[in-house]
Design a protein that fits this description.
single chain; about 90 residues; alpha+beta; about 15% strand; flat
Length: about 90
């Protein structure tokens, strides 16, 4: 992954890019970890502001995202293991 920051008057812009890497496993691991960090951050804020998350139904959405994240990457992992054994 690459991060570029651009500063101007009173403002900082960050651009995040994923560098193409020939091996899929490091890229998929990096993506999974980035998404897990984002979900973890949401869970922390959910502990701080539980009523706001409940009002916006974000608590259910976070649970769904967490479950979906795990299922998507488990599926990818099993597919990759099947290709590796060939």
């Amino acid at each position: 992954m690459g991060v570029v920051s651009q500063e101007s008057t009173g403002r900082t812009n960050f651009k995040v890019g994923i560098l193409l890497y020939p091996a899929e496993v490091p890229v998929m691991f990096t993506l999974r970890m980035a998404i897990a960090v984002a979900i973890g951050t949401l869970k922390i804020f959910q502990l701080i502001y539980p009523e706001r998350f409940a009002l916006m139904s974000l608590d259910a959405e976070i649970a769904r995202l967490s479950k979906e994240l795990n299922s998507k990457f488990k599926t990818y992992s099993s597919q990759y293991r099947g290709q590796e054994s060939r």
